[in-house]
Amino acid sequence: MEESLEDLEALRLFDVIEDDGFGRPLLLVMGCRLDTWVMEMNRVLMLFVRLMHDVSRAPYSVVYFNSNVGWRNQPGFAFFASNYGVLPARYKKNVEHLSIVHPGMWVRSMFLLLRPILSAKFWSKLHYADRLDELWLDDVIQKDVFRA
Known about the structure:
The chain has about 150 residues and is of the alpha/beta class. The protein is built from seven helices and five strands, in the order H-E-E-H-E-H-H-E-H-H-E-H.
């Protein structure tokens, strides 16, 4: 029997948009809605995997919003390091763009710490955006995507 994740779904940590303006699904991740002090991170990972099961079948984009994120909203290095390797290969292969909006020191540091386990191709897919408009100015997504 599949565990209910309705409580996490209601928080809208993740949102899937059918088209990023280039014909790819777009996964939005809202960092400020993740409270690592009270949430069971294994359940958050389960929700992510359920969403990604369909999204990752073809090329897709991800935008992670790091706005208004504090210490409570940041999973530790061990969470990323231990779970990255267990994700199916197609999650990594089919991501076209991973954009971080308002990246802080924590995000930048986490990627540097994960460097040994990230592929060389990963770095060409990563995009830091200090402003939201950089996403469409750099042709990562189309501007109209957020006008739904």
